Amino acid sequence: MELYDRRKQLVPNALGIFNPSTAVRAKGATIWNADGREMIDFAGGIGVMNAGHCPEPVVRAIQEQAARLIHSSFNVSLTESYLDLAEKLVELLPHGEATKVMLTNSGAEAVENAIKIARMATGRQGILCFTGAFHGRTMMSMTLTAKTKNKTSCGPFAPEVYRLEFPYPYRYGAGLSDEAYIEQQVRRLKDFFYYQAGAEHIAAVIVELVQGEGGFTVMPPAYLKALRDTCNEHGILLIFDEVQSGFGRTGEWSAFAHYGIVPDLSTWAKSMGGGMPIGAVMGKAHIMDAALPGTIGGTYGGNPVCCAAALANIQYMEAIDINAHGRRVGKIVRRRMEAMQAKCPAIGNVRGLGAMLAFELVKNNDPWQPDAELATKLVAACEKKGLIIISAGTFGNCIRVLSPLLYKYKNMAYKQYINGVWCDALNHNTWEVLNPATEEVVATVPYGNDDDARMAIEAAHQAFPAWSKTNAFQRASMLKNVAARIRQNASDFARITTQESGKPLMEAKGEWMVAADLFEWFAEEAKRTYGTVIPTSRNNKRSYVIWQPVGVVGIITAWNFPVWNLARAWGASLAAGCTIVAKPSEYTPLTAMLLTEIFDSEGFPPGVVNLVSAEAPSVGDALMDAEAVRKVHFVGSTRVGKILMDKASKVNTKLSLELGGNAPVLIFPDMNVEQIAASAVGAKFRNCGQVCVSPQRFLVHQDIYHAFCEAAAGLVAQYKAGNGLDTGTQVGPLINRKQQEHVAALVETSVSGGAKVLAGGNIPYPKGYFYSPTLLKEVEVTSPVFTKEAFGPLLPVTPFRNFEEAITLANATEFGLASYIWTKDLNTALLASEALEFGIVGINEWTPHGTEVPFGGWKQSGQGSELGHDGIFEAAAMPTGLAKSTEVVVASAKGALVYDVDGNTLIDMAGGIGVLNAGHRPTTVVNAIKKQLDKVIHSCTLVTTNEPTVELCEMLNKVTPGDFPKKTLLANSGAEAVENAVNIAKYYTKRPAIIVFEGGYHGRTLLTMSMTSKYGLFKKGYGATVSDIFRLPAPNMFRPFKGMSKAQYLQHCLDQLDHALIAQVDPSAIAAIVIEPVQGEAGFVPIPAEFLQKIRSLCTQHGIVMIADEIQSGFGRTGKLFAIEHSGVAPDIITMAKSIASGMPISAVTGRAEIMDTLHLGAVGGTYGGNPVACAAAIETIKILTDPAFVKHADQIGEIMRKTLESWKRKYSLVGDVRGIGGMRIVEFVKERDNNTPDPDLTLEIIRDAVSKGLILIRAGLFSNCIRLLPPFVITTGQLKEALEVLEGAIARAHTKRGL
């Protein structure tokens, strides 16, 4: 309990916690507390850990990104990780034809930005939300939130927000049927626009489809349809808040996927980032682009580390098929909850969607008697038993389940699958599947005949009309789900494939992974079956071609690649809209049955996929005789392929045939013998040589022939044959006894014909169908091993004298599937590739075939072409509302240097907008991040207590100004810190008003944007802001009023403070005065000490809370740890962010303990606040910034800049002013120094010039006419001087250009 007790001393009591659990380590669905006790996590950090705690891909992605780049600010320069994540989100969650994405730090920030975008897109102000809703704790999101407990004493709230009753039949149904109640609510929705607000006034409706804090109440489909129709009718935007319901929680990537209704905008967070603080706004591109440049975004939004974590997390969730997990977990939990409800009268209602489930506790079975007390007792009792759960609901009487969605696959009985039913053969016959390595029975499967096949054909025929009309995007989505399930279970499936086929385990797993790629490929191709319009010779005639599914496809495949063979046929057929009847090899049916189980569990309709385990000839006959079967896909021998072609000629069935192969390998004398020998041996013995495209006949130029044979023989002799499940096995057995005898006979015949065995040539074990990897030399071109398909571990080598002979020997076969050329001479390679009579030619490559290229052969190797197709890359772009300062695309950074994607090195004089005081990627910070990843990424400080959170709060309480007891609240961004600080002040004083200053910048959320001064860039087009905010002049000593000396001007500003408390607002109404000691966006305007001292005096006199916004000026930037220390003033509350954690998204509010502790429980905090990884980074960063040697160097940096900038003012008339404190310096540009007319165009010209010379710079100032310098303090004096020389060069060129 020590950690929990420390938390109570350091952190505001209002930051509520559901139980006293601590979290020092977490993995999967388990948390270990500070006492080493193991806890099952049913809270998931409040819905953040859908993929479990600390997934390895996420941990690895964070480590790798932290080693390259932690932060640069997307407003300053592009980062690839931002765009990669945006592309993935667009791929998974399209909002119509074109979708755009902006990234934030939290769900609340996402909601704030979505509302801003909606208002700017529509030109309207009204927002409609619902009872029971929770959208966050920032001003706008808190206004939208219904639960009054979250909002006490924080007003006045945002105007133009209206609220409707969320359809909640259990509580509000009043005895009506669900249908009648929903009809009633739809009428109320329509009436709203007559009685409360005109539709033309409403910008957006925002709704959670599953209300989170509201107790997991689910939006009825009929009501949502009416809502969508109403929005369409009146031009109102529909926003879905998916912050808690997204990313598999409901069994789909989005809750809206269950409804088939697409929003105009949507918000995301929580399980997107695997525990890292990140959120997103997505929307239709034209709506997202309505936001004006500069009005959305922020310092941390799209932090590279968080983006990397989110992308890895999403890809991991795809791989494990998080949606299938959500559906399964949901079924299990719902069944258990409903069973509990039947036994326990206190459970009044069980509800939710997928695995987002809750039960509501009531007294006397009455929905109007909520039992929050019982819910609290249940949470505490579960904690004692090692289970972490959390409550929810308007009255706090619901228990919600948000556990990680981890689920272990269990396999099924091996049977046929016909019309959606697993079944035995109609004749009840069976087949024993043997392990070719042990000759032991692996499983017994049905073994039917043409009767089973005809039943499957009829099922496929009946299912075809509906399946062929299924939307291509829906088919694509289902196939992608199949791919994800394969990736999730590939290791388990591979063991079964190895047991029945004999191939080494890694080869089997690789085959499953390639199969996943195939299904994903064809999922995308489903959406690309474009038609063609053909010009004609007549003006009144149009010709066009469209592609339609042919019908039922019969699929018969071979045993050598038991899942790859299936995937390429099944994927193409199902993507096109065909239904299938598949017959796998009797030697490897288990793999096919495993694959079929995935299709079954993913909800493919009955009859779409049918699997028959039966005699091959009878199934073939049934397929060829059936009129319903329009195409047959066959992988197998040329002999059977010819039989099928003969039958097809009588019934006109379309065929796709992949038959035999006898691939030549041409090795020319310019190759390195040892290298090509090693390469050839590895390629030859893949899958024991049982590969249609396997290199078969090695034709080696006579000059290197003997050397090649010698080198290859030595390697072949070392190859280990064995059970594919055994570690170290390189070659498995052949598939059966017949194949073993075939290979042995080929060797025997070749030897009798004069060939020499240099390695192998024997059966190594008495049990199993093994044949040793074998190298044969001096093989005659008439030998069967040269003319026939060996399909075994044989490497026959024959010499050739010249190019012509090589081509002749290579083409001397009835087959024409694959061939290989190895030479360093491009001319030889091109000539040979054109002369070879094979469908596939590999030049210095053993795997020329792939998912993305056509696959097929000539001559007796088959007909038709599979795979391939020109793909279309669909990119996501950032909305134009996200302003950026440069065109630099950052790849990595270290210290004060940035490296872009083109390999250029740039000096960073922007520091990610003042975030990198300690430099890019400080080693101790990176190490701290990596160390924390081994413990816990996220558990939510509202659920458990984490050691890094407590330690950071303790550190901040010590280093911030003021000799009085303090407490600290952690958030995700500067804007969130300011919002929380103001709410704390309002609650403490019970007053509504806030005083801010001209030139101030405090953020882009509703409250902070209302407090921010600069209108044109940050607020234009937004509309109604928060009331009771009073703005006073702050002394800008560069621009005093005309006719006033600087001393007179300062006195005037001081007088205005006193006057405002008479003319504008009474002191008794003022909760707080908020000021930046050095105004950042205003152009680094230092506030005189006298002014800050005056504010302190007024606050003390009138009981007003003084808040210092040190977000940009803090942590050593001005020569002291905090800028306000220069004035000798100690504020009541201080807000911090930016350089607190070397780029990791985190912020803090530290204040007097008596102020911080006045809030009611639950009034502050959020999901990500106090993220352990960000806290670990902050702790090490503060250690760096408080080191005396570091502080000394920072002072030197500031002094060099000061002297240099002052010299510029003397030299260049276009430099109007240079100012700042310490290492926070700015150059202001003017047209005429006499009247200080701002020149923003000149400023932009100089920045672009400097950037082109390798410098990163950003603008500032009310008129955007300043260049601010915020270099990392680890910059060397040499780097700094170089940077200043580059900037001066740009200034000088601009000066000369203007004839000055």
UniProtKB/TrEMBL annotation:
Top-level taxon in the UniProt lineage? Eukaryota
UniProt-listed Pfam families:
Aldedh (PF00171), Aminotran_3 (PF00202)
Query: Entry's SUPFAM superfamilies?
Result: ALDH-like, PLP-dependent transferases
Where along the chain is the active site annotated?
E658
Q: Which Gene3D superfamilies match?
A: Aldehyde Dehydrogenase, Chain A, domain 1 (3.40.605.10), Aldehyde Dehydrogenase, Chain A, domain 2 (3.40.309.10), Aspartate Aminotransferase, domain 1 (3.90.1150.10), Type I PLP-dependent aspartate aminotransferase-like (Major domain) (3.40.640.10)
Query: Could you tell me which residue ranges the Aldehyde dehydrogenase domain spans?
Result: 427-874
Instruction: Please give the name of this protein.
Output: Aldehyde dehydrogenase domain-containing protein
Q: What is the lineage of its organism?
A: Eukaryota, Metazoa, Ecdysozoa, Arthropoda, Crustacea
